[in-house]
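Exercise 7. Predict the structure of Monovalent cation/H(+) antiporter subunit G from Paractinoplanes lichenicola.
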Amino acid sequence: MNGVLDVIAGVCLIVGALLSLSAGVALMRFPDLLSRMHAATKPQVLGLLLVLTGCALRLREAVDITTLLLVAVFSMATAPVAAHMIGRAGYRAGLAREDTLVVDELYTADDKR
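Solution. The predicted structure, encoded as tokens:
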């Protein structure tokens, strides 16, 4: 049973690391703010969760798993809020491309952009 858990842990670690790597590459390659913001949050958080799952499967102690669970909860709580604030600040600074917006809910008549 330990061998199977080690293989699953290894797969989780590798897939999580590849997702995090793809998020880093996307940050460098994507052309605009909103695309980069998406790349910084979605695959990075999933990659981190997979890496934490792989570590939990490998370590198998209650103290370690509790610590990894706290890291996962705080990451999932802060990443969307940070992405929202970055996106809103970038929009207000005029960094979002208007041609890619389908619905512009932040635009008001008194905006001077």
